[in-house]
């Protein structure tokens, strides 16, 4: 008999592409949700029907769901890359918030007349903001050898409070009565695709990032280094990859996509920075990354699904009176079932 | 700044520290056994929900029991996924926290509000006056005229310290967190130990949630723990996984939190946001400053498999 202590993150990183486990987790989550709906005294079929028609009933509803999915897709892409390398970056919350802050600060401080240049500059600033915060976490993790989850988790709270502080001091709108920035200059507003809904070109940015991440992960040397590091840091080092380099690189990528998510949300939906505008985005993105099996391409349907789930459940509450808090139940259960399933099943996995 | 303001600050500090202390003491059990307690927030929130439902339906004693049961149940969910299935502790904890927000929000509406946000009113647990001590001038009435849950929070570190450092069970629990193979080698079952530790953690943290509902707010509101579980997690780090220093960290964090509402009273040169950052920055500084000597249990976050390979 052999005994072994192992790091669970290695097994998380080995999630096979195209695994059926996330779908089984989703099925289980919905079965429990149906039971809860029955406890609430409603017919689960009627309730899910209301949710479906609420999600897909009109083009406007679909656009709303896609708008919600946009930051989720961006952030979960970064989370998936990190998890693939065995780096449990749960700093999305803070990285998104700082991305939005950086984009806002750049757009307000250095107005550029040309819309294209202005938008590109603000988006880049957002990505850099998230990247810088993640890079700081990576440096602390690598130099002091402290668990990255504890660092990214603690840094989330600091980042959120930093946003509050800047909105109180320099960036805040005078007399708004709520911690928010003034409206951004029109030049950085992302083009709306389907007014009056908030759907904007950010959705294409998110798609492009997911496609690029898939290419990076499956078709490049760095992508192989990511997967090798996730499978076994020792083996990756033996194969000649710099493990600290990969960890740093993947954290920076994760921070950049999260920062971009914040920038897109600020520039495409609200046109201003509002305190707490991204609450929960980072954690939901972890759920999406798991549901999508850490495969950037599968994150596209996974995040769109979560977008529809949120709009659908809101409609269900309006029509059937079942509390929409069920969204959180389903999100949490999907995460738990996928985690339990992959941990037990990753034994046959390959890089 | 005068005496009355200082007493007011101290009273608020004790009030805020009480639920934190329960959560942190539970978290120490879990983390010393080798399971990161990121799910503390969810366990506390489940406990708060259990306390509200129990107290409304059956009375305050049932509220405390309900809190321990619901917190323990959330602990069992986390333990099943992390300990039994060997999933990543941290991500599981986050998942449990998301689940707890949704589930408590849903259940409170369904069980107490017929689908809508319920109006719950629970009579607060009254203060228990300790004779003689409460008559001491100055701090007497402040420290010795508190609800009994507050006294309990102040006393929990004593049995916990004795349990961890002096009892056979405590030794095995710590061994499961430092070197599970050694536990296995002497015929113990590190997985069973960890499972029980996480469930116990949930029950204790759940009582922390009950303090909020039964001792302070008198109702249940959505996501009412509002990050206190994460704060307790930071307190454990600052207290370096030992009960008394962790209690001290809880008091320090509570004082910082109490100050955020009183920044102007004490005419501090910084904003409330900066004061709120203090606990997290301090925890980060301890982790980063001490690095590997921060005394994180050696096998925390790893899993253990019999006959694996």
Automatic annotation (TrEMBL), chain A:
Topology relative to the membrane: Multi-pass membrane protein
Pfam families, alphabetized: BPD_transp_2
Organism superkingdom: Bacteria
One function term, GO molecular function aspect: transmembrane transporter activity
Keywords: Cell membrane, Membrane, Transmembrane, Transmembrane helix
KW NAD (keyword) present: no
Sequence intervals crossing the membrane: 20-42, 62-83, 95-113, 119-142, 149-167, 199-218, 238-261, 281-308, 320-343
GO cellular component, one term: plasma membrane
Localization annotation: Cell membrane
Protein's name according to its UniProt entry: ABC transporter permease
Organism: Lichenibacterium ramalinae
TrEMBL record, chain B:
A GO cellular-component term linked to this record: plasma membrane
Membrane topology (UniProt): Multi-pass membrane protein
Pfam families: BPD_transp_2
Segments traversing the membrane: 6-28, 35-58, 64-83, 90-112, 148-165, 197-218, 230-254, 266-288
Gene Ontology molecular-function annotations: transmembrane transporter activity
Subcellular location: Cell membrane
CDD domains the record matches: TM_PBP1_transp_TpRbsC_like (cd06580)
Entry keyword set: Cell membrane, Membrane, Transmembrane, Transmembrane helix
Protein name: ABC transporter permease
